[in-house]
Amino acid sequence: MVEWLAVWVAGKGFGFLVKTIISQDFVEDLVKDYAKDFFKNVLNNAVTAPFKREPLEKAVVMALTEFLQLMQQQLKVRCKLSEAEIKEYAEDIKRFIADKSVKEIFGQAFDINCDSLDAKTLADTWKRLRLKPLPSKFNWQTITEQYFIQVQELLFESDELRYILELQKLSSIDKTLKENADIPKDFNLPKYLETIRERYGNLKLDSLETTAREHPVNLWQIFIPQNVRQVYQVLPELPKEHLRRLQESNQLDTELELENIKEGLEGYKRNYLEQPIRSVLDVIRDKQCRKYLVILGDPGSGKSTLLQYLALDWVQKTLEQNDYNLPIPLLIELRNYVRDRDTGDCKDFLEYYHKGPNCCFHLNQHKLHDKLKAGNALVMFDGLDEIFEPTKREEVITCIHRFTNEYPDVQVIVTSRIIGYKQQQLKDAEFRHFMLQDLEPEQIKDFIERWHDKTFNRAEDIDKNIKRERLQRVINESKAIAELARNPLLLTMMAILNLKRELPRDRSELYKDASEVLLHNWDEGRNLKPDERLDTIDYKDKQAMLRQVAYQMQTSEKGLAGNIIYADDLEAIFTKYLQSIPVSDVRDKARRLMKQLRDRNFILCFLGADYYAFVHRTFLEFFCASEFVKRFEKRGTTNGISIEALKDDVFGKHWQDETWHEVLLLIAGMIEAEFVGEILDYLMKQDGEDEKFTNIFLAAKCLTEVRNRSVIATTAKQLLDKIKALTKYDLWYYYNPFFGDVTETKLVQEIRTQAVAAIATTWEDDPQTKTFLQQRATD
Fold first, then answer.
1. Which of 44, 65, 520, 757 could anchor a disulfide with 539, C-beta 3.0 to 4.6 Å?
2. Are residues 156 and 294 in the same domain?
3. Contact partners, residue 273, CB within 8 Å, separation at least 6
4. Does residue 83 sit in the same domain as residue 172?
5. Confidence of residue 151 (pLDDT cuts 50, 70, 90)
6. Which residues pair with 328 in a beta bridge?
């Protein structure tokens, strides 16, 4: 092989670039697997298998040398570069010709049915690989056309390579025979419609519910179109509470006043928050700018549900209008496509729909091709983020780009999570990017109305109204729950839990279930394994580590108010825990875990400047409370804490700090009632007058967390008496409530009003409450 090459190169008089790159070692390494990808779309492997590989390998080398010679000519003649400047591109050119998509395009020049090569994809690939920028005068279209002509001449002039023409004829016959055997007898759109309705018609709640649902929830009837903003640059990662305040007040919270973070946020405010908010359906249906879209969003934000709704929309309109000529929806779940491609069951998107084992319905690819050429389709690529290998993800992006070049009149939508997404490639392919917004209060209310209407029958109207009003009230009154409710996945979990449990009292169960879904069930339910090296670490291990993270955060200088932890501290916590399991390569796994909790689990976010935070403050508070409870359950052991320590070091230290109140309430809801009684006794003994009796009102809130109050009835009665006394509270010194002493008057009114509200909410089921409140109103 190498001897033949030396003679051929010398005879052709190739320049220095060919001689620099086409070395003996390079050629021997190159042809090992190159021919397989090079002729992937030209020849059938089953046909070529009985023949010798040498003619194919010669064809590869001859074609590449022709390309290199053309590359040198263009850089030298058209771009006016010196020999030394051209040689600076040598290593980048080696990387370029080794790329899989480049191999396939180069190989298409040997196809007797090929008319031209895809110059745009070659140009995009050079950019994707981040190679040294080519001079502005470099022209990919010219070099591609010249290369195509040179290869065609090689094919017809060489006796050895003419054998490839014969192989193509055999391959074509073999392919035709197989296709005739495999092609469905028809293009059965009514059956396809029915399949879409069966597959996507109901919400997939398996990963959210432990028992099977008797009456499925119809997606079409419950879908709430979200809003979007256009995205022009990568968005910064911030906890949701900070994003909310930034949007509402245009101010950054003081605990995030880190220079690196502030700089990124200026661009965020300028390029993102100032963009108008639009309905996602309006953007998709806008004929002026709808063609190529990328829909970005958080986990559980409704990206897949949106695409399923669009497929169902075609079902609904087709049935209403009795018209099967409406643009046909093709929903390609990219995780399934890549599995079929990796196993060799398909090589492109059309073949996936034609015969892919993981495709929900098979359509004749020839008729589908005609539909696409006519632009009579909506093609949706779901879950780009679910392709975990970066190389495969980039290959799929290239395939999508090539698809839009092949079928320029088809509307295409791609979805991906925002974390880890790189927008430049699809941006270069003229895709516009939009970010799904969190649900607004009116959208949440609309969802709750629809959910309860569809999950209760008419005979259950009373129960339906009670639970609907309870859930809406909880979201209105609880800042923590309202924040979670803005995510469609977590709102759905609330609606499910609300059917059997009482919120907000049982919200710790909601947080526990939500963390399990995010840490395990969501990816597991979709048969996804983001990193198999972490398979030995289950969601319970992750919860244990996150408890320790939250526990350490509350001991930091900023305490729970900060929601911020240094990357090294985070890694140290994970490393120490993993050493106790034990597992191998703990430091590597700790870093991988940090990435997974950020990229896939939607629990942590990376702020920049080597700082991390919980995405939702609610999870910080829940995991912190859970760690205290776990330690309390181990009381009497080395790592345990006693009831005295819980009272003095936790409630005693923090009852005056409002940022701690939710943690203290969650603890009260997770421990036995008798211990809550001791905590209430402790709080009532504190001198809280200077703190506006925060100790007493916190005690009342702790009591609402207790499921069985009869266990601490005496303590509860003492607390009620104290709060009743506060409804008549007055200052010990003289002041005039009618002439000038405004501060004193306001303070007294505030405490009395708070006391009345505490009685009304904490003892609302007590028949004497109404009588007492009426009496106080009269007084």
1. 520
2. no
3. 229, 246, 247, 250
4. yes
5. confident
6. 377
Handedness of CA 133, 135, 141, 146 (dihedral sign): negative
Angle at 703 between CA 701 and CA 708, to 5 degrees: 145
DSSP calls for 505-557: TTHHHHHHHHHHIIIIIHHHHTT--S-GGGTTS-HHHHHHHHHHHHHHHHHSS
Residue type, 97: I
Residue appearing with tokens 């000519």: 73
> How many domains does the chain divide into?
3
Cβ neighbours around 337 below 10 Å, total? 25
Domain that holds residue 367: 277-436
Q: Which of 260-264, 287-291, 746-750, 754-758 has the lowest mean pLDDT?
A: 260-264
Give the CA angle between residues 237, 239, 240 to the nearest 5°: 110
CATH of the domain at 297: 3.40.50
**E strand or H helix at 72, and its extent?**
helix 54-73
State the average pLDDT over residues 308-326: 91
Distance CA 77, CA 12 (A): 19
Task: Answer yes or no: are the C-beta atoms of 64 and 99 closer than 8 Å.
Answer: no
Residues 6+ apart with CB under 8 A from 568: 610
* 291-308 burial: b if 16+ Cβ within 10 Å, else e: bbbbbbbbbbbbbbbbbb
Answer yes or no: is 36 within a domain: yes
Residue 48, pLDDT score? 42
Pair (24, 161) in one structural domain: yes
